[in-house]
Amino acid sequence: MNWHAMTEEDVLQRVESNENVGLSNREASARLAEFGTNELSEQKPRSPFSVFVSQFNDFMIFILLAATLISGLLGEYIDAITILIIVFINGCLGFFQERKAERSLLALKKLSAPEMTVLREGSWVKIPSRDVVVGDVVKCSTGDRIGADVRFIETSRLAVEESALTGESVPVQKAQVALEEEDINQADKTNMGFMGTLVTSGQGKAVVVATGMNTEMGKIAHLMSSESNQITPLQKRLEELGKVLIAGALVLTALVVLFGIYQGHELYTMVLAGVSLAVAAIPEGLPAIVTIALALGVQRMIKRNAIVRRLPAVETLGCATVVCSDKTGTLTKNEMTVTQLWSVDGTIDMQKGDGSLAFTNDDSSQRFPKTLRRLLYFGTLCTEADITKPEQSAIDKLHAHDISGDPTEVAMVVASAKAGFDKRDIVKDVEIEKVFPFDSKRKMMSMVVKDKQTQKRYVVAKGAPDVLTKHARAIETEKGQEKLTSSAVKQVEEAVEEMAQAALRTIAVGYRELRENEKFVHESEAEQQLTLVGIEGMIDPPRPEVKQAITNSLQAGVRTVMITGDHRVTAEAIAKQIGLLPDGGRVMDGRELDEMSVRDLKDIISDVYVFARVSPEHKLKIVKALQQNGEVVAMTGDGVNDAPAIKASNIGVAMGITGTDVAKEASSLILRDDHFATIQAAIKEGRNIYDNIRKFIRYMLASNVGEILVMLFAMMLGMPLPLVAIQILWINLVTDGLPAMALGMDKPESDVMKRKPRDTEESIFARGLGWKVISRGFMIGVVTLIAFWWMLEVEGTGLQEAQTVAFATLVMAQLIHVFDCRSEYSVFHRNPFGNLYLIGAVLSSVVLLLLVIYVPAFQPIFHTVSLTFNSWLFILAMAALPTVALAGGATIRRKR
C-alpha cells in the first residue's frame, strides 16, 4: 500500500480511524484479536514437555540409566526401580526450577517492553507497543522509539533516525504532506515513520498503518531478531570450572572403583556405586543454578523498583566503584519549590530544616508584609499553570502533583497556596484580556487582566530580575509605590546575588495599573513603566533519602559523582547539601572539560565530584577517563543524547519515569522510581546475589568432596563400602537440591555495604573459599568414615547398620554445614533462623532421611535399619564436628 502517496484524510479513511478521537477500546480489542499483537516473530518458547525431557539429556544420566538396566537384567529390581524414581524426581525438580527461571525472565521482558502514546476514545494513554493496532492515532516526540509503521498527519520540526532500517545515520526531516511519486525507496518516504526508528527532535502525530510482521522491519526481521539468552561472565567461569571438576570427579570415581575391585568387591557393585558417585559428585547443574539465582535476584530487584534488562549487570553491580548520577530528578525531586520571598520590606525563608514550608494559611496573613502578599498574589495570577485537583477546603495541602504546567509556575502557585491564596479563587475575580507568553529572548511573560469588582485593568508581569528591573520605574513598599532609585536597584541586585549563592533560581514580579482605554498590540508596549513588587527564589530540593544513600555508598567503597547541565553554583550548593562534595573536592564545568583530553582528565578525575554545564559528549569523556583509571562505572541518564555514555559505562542506568525509550534500550538497569537510593539498593542486591552464588557453590562442592573422599578412603584402607549406590543418589537428591536453592534466597549479611567493591577479575574461590571447600569436604568425609569404622569395628554392629550410620552422618554433616555457608566468616556470625526457606529445606531433608531409615517399606530399598537414640547422639556429635571445629577456629582467629 502506497501510504506515502495518500493525503492524510485518505489514510485515516482507509484505516477507519478519526484524527481527534482515535479508536474505541472495543474496536482496538477486536483488531488486536483479528490481526495479532504488534510484535516481530521470535523463536517459539520451548514447550513444558521439551523442558522436562531436557532434564534427562545428560551423559551421566545416560550411564546411570544403563547401569539401572543392568541391575534389572541381573534381577536387582528394587534397586533399578528406586534409581528410576530418584532420577525422575530429580528431573522434576530441575524442570520446576528451569520453568521458574523462564517465567522470571519473561516477566522481566514484559516490564521493560517499550510503550507508545495512543489516542483512544478521545484521550491520550500510554500502552505497550505490542497492543498497538492499525488505525491507532499515536504521538511521538524527541527520544521516542516508533513502535509500528505510521503515516504522519501532523509534524513540528520532526526528525527521525532510521539507521536500523536504512543504514543511513543522518536523521531524516519529516513532514505530513503527500508525496507525488508512488515508487520510491524507504529512505525517501519523508511522511512515514517505521518500526524501530528513533525520533531525534521535534514532535508529531501519526496514524498506524502496519504492525508486527507487516511492517518494513518485519520484512527484514532477521536484522531485528530477539536477543539470545546471555551467559554471564560468572556462568562462563563456572562452565570452565565445571569441566575441571568433572574431570577430577571422574578420576577420583575411577580410583574408587579400581580400589574397590582390587579389594575384592564385585564388579557390578563397584560400577553401580562409581556411576552413582559420579552423578552425585559432578556439579553439572551449577550454571543452571546460577541462572536461577540471578533470576530470583532480578525479581527481588523489581520489588525495589530496579528492572534489570541484562543479567550480566547483576554480577557487575557488585563491582561498581563509581556512580555518575544526574542531579535533576535523581538526586533532587525534580519539583521546583519556592523557598525564599524578598521585598524591600523584608525577606521570608519559606522552608524549615526538614524541607517543609514554614507557614500555613492559618497565620500567614499576620506574618506576611503587604508587599510579600502582593508578590504571591500577582505571581500566581501571572501563570498559566492549572490546578487539576478537585475542589478542597485545605488549600495549604495542595501539592505540585495536583497542578499542571511549567515547573517554575507550578512552584509559584504552590507557594501561594501554602499562604492561603488559591489560584482558582483568584482567576474567578479577574478577566484575562490578553497573554504575552514567555519568550527566551526577552525573558519575560505578561498578561492584561481586569478586576471584575473594581473594573480596574492591570498589566502583570514576571521574568528575570535584571530584565524586569530595566522595565520598572517604581518599587512596591508598605507605604505604597516609590521611585526605583539606583540604591533600590542595588538592593535588588544584592538580594538576587544572595539567592544565587544559595543556588536559588530567581523570578521577579511586577505590575502596572492601566488607563481606561489603554490597548496594546505588542508586548513591548505593555511591559513598560512597571512597579517591581518583589522576588521569589526557588530551587529543586534534594530528595530526603539521598544524603543517607550517598553516605552508605561511600561506606561501601562506591563514590558518587554528580553530572548535570545546571549552573556551577547550583550544582555545588546541592552537592554540599547532600554530602556529596567533601572538603577539597573539585567542581568542574563544561568549559574546562572542553580544554582537556581523556588522558588529562584521567589524572585528576579522582578528585572531581561535580561536573556542571556538561553536554552528552562530556559524559562520554568522563566515563572513559574513569574507566581508564580502573573504575567500574554506573552511569545514569534519561535523554537520547545520554545513550552513548550509558552504553559505554559498565552499568548503564536509565530513568523509568522520565527516561526516553532509547536511553532505556541502551541501559542495563532501569529505575522505575528515578530515585538515587534505588541505585544503592540495586548495588546491595547485586552484591548479595554474588554472595549467594558463592554460598551454594561452597556448599555443593564441599558436600561432593565429602562424598567422594569417604568412598575413596574406605577403598584405599580396604574397608567395606560405607555407602551403597542408592544411598549416594538419595543424598544427592535430598541434601544438594533444596538447601542449595534456599541459600540463593538468603538475605544480605550486615556488612555487605561496608566492604570494598569486588574486583571484576576475582576468582570464584577468592577470599578463602577454595580452602573452605577442601577443608570442610575433607572433614565431612573423615568423620563419616570414622562413624562407619566405629560402628563396624568398635561397636561390632552389622554392615547394614554401620552403613546406615555413615549414611545419616554424611547427610547431617552436610545439613549442618549449610548453615556455615551462610556467612563469609563462620556459622556463629549469623542468626541460624534468619533464612526461613533454609530452615524449611533442612527440616524437609531431615524428615525424608528419617523416612528411609524408619519406614519398613523403604528399609530394603535403601539398605537401612532403624537406629537407636544413642546412635543418633553419636551421629549428631560426629556430624557437627567439621562445622563446629573449623568455624570455631575461624572465629577465634578473626577475633584475635
Automatic annotation (TrEMBL):
Keyword annotations from UniProtKB, A to Z: ATP-binding, Cell membrane, Ion transport, Magnesium, Membrane, Nucleotide-binding, Phosphoprotein, Translocase, Transmembrane, Transmembrane helix, Transport
Domain Cation-transporting P-type ATPase N-terminal per the UniProt entry, residue ranges: 2-76
Domain of life: Bacteria
Residues annotated as transmembrane: 49-71, 77-96, 244-262, 268-296, 696-717, 723-745, 773-792, 804-821, 833-857, 869-892
GO BP term, example: monoatomic ion transport
GO CC terms in record: plasma membrane
Main location: membrane
Entry's Gene Ontology molecular function annotations: ATP binding; ATP hydrolysis activity
Membrane topology according to the record: Multi-pass membrane protein
InterPro entries attached to this UniProt entry: ATPase_P-typ_cation-transptr_C, ATPase_P-typ_cation-transptr_N, ATPase_P-typ_cyto_dom_N, ATPase_P-typ_P_site, ATPase_P-typ_TM_dom_sf, ATPase_P-typ_transduc_dom_A_sf, ATPase_P-type_domA, Cation_transp_ATPase_P-type
Keyword Transferase: no
Subcellular location(s) of the protein: Cell membrane
Gene3D superfamilies: Calcium-transporting ATPase, cytoplasmic domain N, Calcium-transporting ATPase, cytoplasmic transduction domain A, Calcium-transporting ATPase, transmembrane domain, HAD superfamily/HAD-like
PROSITE patterns listed in its UniProt record: ATPASE_E1_E2
Similarity field: Belongs to the cation transport ATPase (P-type) (TC 3.A.3) family. Type IIA subfamily.
Protein name: Ca2+-transporting ATPase
Species of the source: Texcoconibacillus texcoconensis
